[in-house]
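From the methods appendix. Each design record in this collection lists the tokenized structure first, followed by the designed amino acid sequence. Records were kept in a plain field format so they could be parsed without special tools. The example shown here is representative of the layout used throughout.

RECORD:
FOLD TOKENS (95 positions):
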């Protein structure tokens, strides 16, 4: 099992319920593909480094999880097409 860190930037213009639903959907994908979620850091609303789709702000979440090596690829395929997600990044954390 490898340790991963998944950074998720969600559109700041959506309602709170939609933002929480997006986070829950990502957590469901991680668990469906065999991962176990560790911690979730909610960084809240932050200014983006540059405009993305004419938006200047986004909600940042950092999800730490453990899984095998196929889960990040499957997760990225699903998150790539989600409407409320502005950016994402999945990196492997060395022990």
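DESIGN:
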């Amino acid at each position: 099992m490898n340790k991963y860190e998944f950074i998720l930037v969600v559109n700041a213009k959506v309602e709170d319920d939609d933002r929480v639903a997006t986070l829950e959907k990502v957590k469901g994908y991680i668990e469906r593909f065999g991962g176990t979620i560790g911690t979730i850091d909610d960084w809240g609303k932050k200014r983006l480094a540059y405009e993305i789709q004419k938006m200047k702000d986004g909600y940042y979440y950092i999800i730490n999880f453990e899984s095998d090596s196929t889960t990040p690829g499957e997760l990225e395929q699903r998150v790539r097409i989600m409407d409320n997600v502005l950016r994402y990044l999945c990196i492997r954390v060395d022990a």
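APPENDIX NOTE: Residues 2-93 form a domain with the Alpha-Beta Plaits fold (CATH 3.30.70.60).
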